[in-house]
Design a protein that fits this description.
The protein is an all-alpha fold. It has 2 domains: 83 residues, no CATH class; 120 residues, no CATH class. Helices cover 91% and strands 0% of the residues. It has 8 helices and no strands. Helix 1 runs antiparallel to helix 2 and helix 3 runs antiparallel to helix 4. It is rod-shaped. The chain starts with a helix and ends with a helix.
Length: 252
């Protein structure tokens, strides 16, 4: 008799506890429904975990199954929402890069290198955020073409300056400086395909070598005669010294 009474009390407590849990779940379901309708999916997902935890305590399988299905549905919705958001970002980034490309080509064509370099710098952030390999390769191609064109122009200007300076440098016997510049530019001409200047640079190179050889020969003769004059003066052979002085004057 006492055992039956104890069992009845136990069942009554279990029923009361289950009713309390169901009441809590109903309250959470009401809040969850509002969050879901408002599109607050993260909040609805968090409540689903709470509801499942409560339902598991009383083995309320219908609630558990319902919430597991809802979780799967919410995750699909969140994934789709994230994809749509990403698509909007991608579209915006591509539009920005298209505008920058127009500005880039305009600045490059007008040889505004400062603006062109700044535009290239600005694209880096957009390209990283976009993360699209094809677009990145496209901009690398644009940058390479621009840098090649700029380098060719700068080399072209250096060649013209060298052609203009070569005579003066030879007259001042600055052969080392002239040869150094020639070596660099001849290499650049071959690498960049500026063959139109190759013949002119080769001619300047030949003239420079010839002028340097002549200079070194005269310099050597002057040194030799100077030593002979000093020797004649020391031996008091003044007439011979005068002859050497005349030779020195002719060389000078």
């Amino acid at each position: 008799m006492a055992k039956d009474k104890s069992t009845a009390v136990k069942k009554k407590d279990e029923k009361r506890r289950k009713i309390s849990v169901i009441s809590q779940i109903d309250d959470l379901l009401a809040i969850q429904g509002q969050d879901y309708m408002k599109g607050q999916l993260k909040e609805a997902l968090a409540l689903a975990d709470q509801i499942i935890e409560l339902a598991q305590s009383e083995n309320l399988t219908s609630f558990i199954k319902e919430q597991e299905e809802l979780i799967a549905k919410i995750k699909k919705l969140m994934e789709r929402r994230e994809q749509e958001k990403r698509q909007k970002v991608v579209l915006k980034l591509k539009l920005e890069l298209k505008k920058l490309e127009i500005d880039f080509k305009r600045a490059s064509k007008s040889e505004d290198y400062s603006e062109t370099d700044q535009i290239l710098k600005n694209t880096k952030r957009f390209l990283i955020e976009l993360g699209d390999n094809e677009t990145s390769l496209h901009w690398k191609s644009l940058e390479k073409e621009y840098l090649d064109t700029r380098a060719r122009k700068e080399i072209n200007e250096e060649i013209l300056r060298l052609i203009e300076d070569s005579t003066e440098l030879q007259e001042k016997f600055l052969f080392s400086e002239l040869k150094l510049r020639l070596t660099y530019l001849l290499k650049q001409v071959e690498e960049k395909g500026l063959t139109g200047y190759l013949e002119k640079l080769k001619k300047i190179e030949e003239e420079t070598i010839s002028a340097e050889n002549t200079y070194n020969t005269i310099k050597g003769n002057i040194q030799e005669i100077s030593e002979k004059i000093a020797e004649q003066q020391e031996n008091k052979e003044f007439q011979s010294a005068i002859v050497y002085c005349e030779e020195l004057i002719q060389l000078a």
